[in-house]
Amino acid sequence: MTVGRGTASRPIYLEIRFEDPQLVLSSFTATHSAPVELEFQPTEGLGWDCAFVVVEGSNPEALLDALKSDPTVTDAAYLGSIGDDNRYRVHFESGVPLVPPSTTEMGVRVISVQHEDGAWNVQMHLPAHSTLHRVQSHYHDHDITFRVKRLHVARDTDVGAETMLLPGHREVLLVAYRNGYFNVPRKISQGELAKRLGISKSGVSQRIRRAVGRLVKATLSP
Question: Whole-angstrom Cα distance, residue 93 to residue 72?
């Protein structure tokens, strides 16, 4: 979707998807299929190279070792877990940043940085359409190929509950809803959903549970 001239001075919502071995955490994400989230607001001159990383998994110590073994990571520390969500503080020493280091200077708000199903999905609010070229240049300058998934004038809903969901979680939840999984009585089992989606039954169970948890957190949690 393109943005018209009349909206050039209005905030822009941008969602892009990409994957490249030059990026930070590429070794880690290549060997671990669990969803990964980065939580940080990089600031040029103040250290884009530190981020909070949230990884799904039942063995936080093994995940910590895997993070430390990634060539782009100089240090990682385990901060704790909530359920299967394991939180780490990670410092990077190399690799291409997932978002431009000058985002704060440009007035860009990073909504989410999430990795699932082999690619990063990044959502941002840009203060104006003129900022778009500067954001895109960050990826072009490092020869990172990316795909624009959404580009439009920003709306309140762009920072709502939907952005809390990873793409795979969103897909499972929608397929489950459309096929009557939440009906009483239930019209489809987790096993049948797994066949439709091409993932394991446990994968369906985990994604539904986590998606519902994120939606509750986004809409009901004070």
Answer: 6
Q: 27 versus 170: which is more confidently predicted?
A: 27
Q: Which two tokens stand for residue 165?
A: 């969901």
**CB neighbour list of residue 177: distance below 8 Å, 6 or more residues apart:** none
Domains of the chain are: 11-154 (no CATH), 163-219 (1.10.10)
Distance CA 102, CA 92 (A): 16
Model confidence, pTM:
0.74
Backbone angles phi, psi at 125, to 5 degrees: -105, 125
In the chain, the percentage of residues whose pLDDT exceeds 90 is: 50
What percent of the chain is modeled with pLDDT above 70?
A: 85
- Rounded Cα distance between 75 and 67, Å, is 8
Other C-beta atoms within 10 Å of 19: how many? 16
Residue 118 burial class via C-beta count within 10 angstroms: exposed 0-12, middle 13-18, buried 19 and up: exposed
Angle between helices 190-197 and 201-219 (to 10 degrees): 100
